[in-house]
Amino acid sequence: MEKRYSRLGETVERITLGNGLTIYAVPKPEYSKSYALFATHYGGIDMRFRLGDRWMDTPAGVAHFLEHKMFDTKDGNALQELAKGGASPNAFTGSDMTAYYFDSTERFENNLRIMLDFVSVPYFTPESVQKEQGIIGQEIRMIEDDPNWCVYTNLSRALYENHPIRATVAGTVESIAGITAETLYDCHKAFYNPSNMVLCVMGNFEPDNIFRLAEEILPKEGLGEIQRDYGKTESPNAYQERIETRMEVSTPIFLMGYKDSPRPEGKEGLRRTLTARLACDLLFGDSSPLYADLYSKGLINRNFGGDYEAIAGGAFIAVGGESKDPDAVREAILAEARRVGREGLDKERFERTRKASFGNRLRALNSFDGTCVQMAEFHFLKADYFDFPEIFDAITARDAEEYIAETIQPEKTAVSIVKPKESEPQ
């Protein structure tokens, strides 16, 4: 099915194959480069799920571990094969999505064939799994020494009592020690089935060739919807008020979290996302009154900023940076949210910010990788990302005011701080 988005100047051809895989093809014949992203709706939070007639409980870190291992094939390594074809491949694992991607200026269809094949055909041995445990274990030890990783991880644990976002995407050295080849095969069977995946391509190609290639290579059937369990129902309020730790930093690093209700599916979920991110720009952006006040008082520096994050079963705003007095920043944010609730937003500034945000999204469409990630994310939310212009038109200042007043509340607030290590006594 071809759909023209006149506001964006984009044409998207979309098809859902008999196995359940949806493909989005955005032809760009004026470009020499083409890009492909093959994603599964599976990430770090998907540790408990139903496969057939039994519930599976898997260790933290399996999705990330599986991403690493998928490049192994019986004949060698898919990364090397793609590089031979002039492709630049990579992959990432998030909380609820794992994606494989590449771009190339030549042999695009052949490179796509390689990617579809290695992602859909797993190959693991006990020996290769054991070797990977050592490699990923080293990565985990390194990232655990990163203050920015630590402050984010502790914020997740402060906001949520039961949700698996409390566990890190990579897992721990102890959790990945429990991963076996059988674990990986089970998770691949459940989540790497075509009905749980999406293929997004942009660039210089013939869409019909992409559709035929996917039908030829991928399994003929999918498993349908995967039942998942994200733990007990969460309180609408933050689980803990604060978590502090000490590391090798010169100035305290902080993140404030504001717990939101889970994001709905469909167009309403896209609207919620755009409203929340616009609210973040209005409240925390470098042209906001709050930013100017905090900066003038020396409470923040240019690293200050906030954004909205949503996962299955949860959502929150996170804002942070560096400050000698994070508690003063926390109180200033709450006070500004109360003021917005009482007095509202400056309407001229709201319109300027809304137009700037819309313009940024329009320009971002020139980024093939970013656009494909957005298409995949909102496909899994059962929404069409390219509907964002009409949704932006409908967002009012009142929508943003209500979101800020309802979400930036003391009982919904958690604080994560990484402080400098205390000096050794002389």
Automatic annotation (TrEMBL):
The protein's GO terms of the molecular function aspect are: metal ion binding
Quote the InterPro entries the UniProt record gives. Metalloenz_LuxS/M16, MPP/UQCRC_Complex, Pept_M16_N, Peptidase_M16_C
Which residue ranges does the record assign to the Peptidase M16 C-terminal domain?
Answer: 179-356
Please give the Gene3D superfamilies that the UniProt record associates with this protein. Metalloenzyme, LuxS/M16 peptidase-like (3.30.830.10)
What is the top-level taxon of the source organism? Answer: Bacteria
* Annotated Pfam families: Peptidase_M16 (PF00675), Peptidase_M16_C (PF05193)
Which residues belong to any copy of the Peptidase M16 N-terminal domain? 60-172
Name it.
Predicted Zn-dependent peptidase
Organism classification, top ranks? Bacteria, Bacillati, Bacillota, Clostridia, Eubacteriales
